[in-house]
Design goal:
- It is built from 15 helices and 2 strands.
- With 368 residues, it is mainly α.
- The chain has a two-stranded antiparallel sheet.
- The longest helix has 27 residues.
Length: 368
């Protein structure tokens, strides 16, 4: 008489093998979730789907596409800024300077030198990158709070320079618009808002790809070591200065590229993009989404930008105007609403929105 040996928890071989493979298969499928999201974003201009409360009109309407494009742009900008804050541990208060450099340099080259958009954009990108190289090489001579203060000083100097309107080339406090005849026809007018939206989407995809590749490279691993313990990196025989400068210049180049996209979206260069408040907004976006994570800064940038626009509409709505004064006064201030949202996320979700899925999984496992 023979006795069949059975593996506990299974009646034959197939089900257990399937059960063992299922988690791995699911994990592999989940890694591909950005692909369908990208497809949805790419076809959004063709959609007439209304999203009441989220957008003023259908998804494919010019106003909605303009807002979505702005959200995507700042999602990319926050992702690039996180190369400094979340990946290398560098708190810069002057990141807006390189964003503005890309915008103003391109604008000036088109208006003053009469260059076509493509060439002016290339030179504008080079200008922002070289500026990041020069100022970064000086700022990184100090560390910690000293580095932050030096970057803030450079940002303030740039903001003052723009506001003084040297030679009439920056437009001062009014900024400087790009004449329609300086741009290709397919980028001018509300009928071509979809083209601007696709440019913003392409910029976001490119930024995510560059940052992901850089972080996974040997240089990215050194950045992680610098963030954790810079002295230990020195003991290993590496010079942190060169690696930090690489991160600084790469983040500056991505910011300059964002300035080019912003120039096209808004039709001009604005002095607000040169201020330290602009960089502080980037800091809030990164912390809101989750510093040092792959998708967190992008999510934080998109959510913050959307809330900044939509809460402004809410603050001026009739629903708020009809409230008692004790509620109407604070709710009529968009910055107050953004501040409450930020404090709530930081308090309830330490680590940002990117940590929410892991927290939910942990809570579900504890309840089993």
């Amino acid at each position: 008489m023979s006795t069949a040996t059975r593996t506990p928890g299974r009646t034959d071989g197939a089900p257990a093998a399937t059960d063992a493979r299922t988690p791995h298969t699911t994990a592999r499928l989940l890694r591909w979730w950005p692909a369908p999201v990208l497809v949805v974003l790419a076809v959004a201009p063709y959609s007439a789907l209304p999203l009441p409360g989220l957008l003023d009109g259908p998804v494919g309407s010019p106003g909605s596409l303009q807002l979505l494009a702005t959200c995507l742009l700042f999602g990319a900008l926050a992702t690039g800024y996180d190369l400094l804050l979340g990946r290398t541990g560098l708190l810069s208060f002057g990141h807006a300077l390189y964003f503005a450099a890309g915008s103003y340099a391109t604008n000036t080259l088109m208006l003053e030198a009469g260059l076509p958009l493509a060439l002016a954009a290339l030179l504008g990108l080079c200008s922002g990158t070289v500026l990041a190289l020069v100022l970064g090489s000086v700022s990184l001579r100090v560390t910690g709070i000293g580095f932050s203060m030096v970057t803030l000083a450079f940002a303030q100097a740039g903001s003052i320079l723009v506001s003084r309107n040297p030679g009439g080339r920056t437009g001062g406090e009014e900024g400087r618009a790009v004449p329609a005849d300086s741009l290709p026809s397919w980028l001018v007018g509300i009928d071509h808002t979809a083209n601007l939206y696709w440019i913003a989407l392409a910029h976001l995809v490119l930024t995510l790809a560059v940052v992901h590749r850089a972080v996974r490279s040997p240089t990215g691993r050194v950045w992680e070591g610098i963030k954790e313990n810079e002295r230990r990196v020195e003991v290993l025989g590496l010079k942190p200065y060169g690696f930090k400068l690489t991160a600084f210049v790469l983040a500056g180049a991505l910011a300059a590229a964002g300035g080019l996209v912003h120039l096209l979206l808004t039709g001009g260069s604005t002095p607000q993009t040169t201020t330290s408040d602009f960089t502080l907004s980037l800091l809030v976006m990164v912390v809101l989404g989750g510093s040092g994570t792959r998708w967190g800064p992008m999510v934080g940038g998109i959510l913050y930008t959307w809330a900044d626009h939509r809460l402004g509409d809410l603050a001026g709505s009739g629903a708020v105007a009809d409230l008692p004064a004790v509620l109407r006064v604070p709710l009529s201030q968009p910055l107050f609403l953004l501040g409450v949202l930020f404090v709530a996320v930081v308090h309830l979700l330490p680590g940002g929105l990117a940590r929410l899925p892991s927290r939910l999984r942990g809570t579900r496992e504890e309840n089993r």
